[in-house]
Amino acid sequence: MFDVYRNDKRGLLVLSTGSAVPALYSAHTWRKSRKRVLKVSNEIKSTVQAQGYYIRSLRATKERMIYVK
Description:
Radius of gyration: 14 Å
Strand order of the largest sheet: 3-1-2-4
Shape: globular
Strand content: 25-35%
Low-confidence stretches: none
Largest sheet: 4 strands, antiparallel
Structural class: alpha+beta
Number of strands: 4
Number of helices: 1
Distance between the termini: 43 Å
Order of helices and strands: EEEHE
């Protein structure tokens, strides 16, 4: 199972259950998701196994933004 954390800047941090937040990212304010995550994508699973964590920014980019006229 995995623990999912979010921060105010739309960041996403995925850790294996019971792991501590890495020191590099501990300065950020992370809030743990209340829902338990049982299954994640193969990309996230392999990164968590190799590095111990997976992090990405969920900020909206110009490519992802939808403009309504």
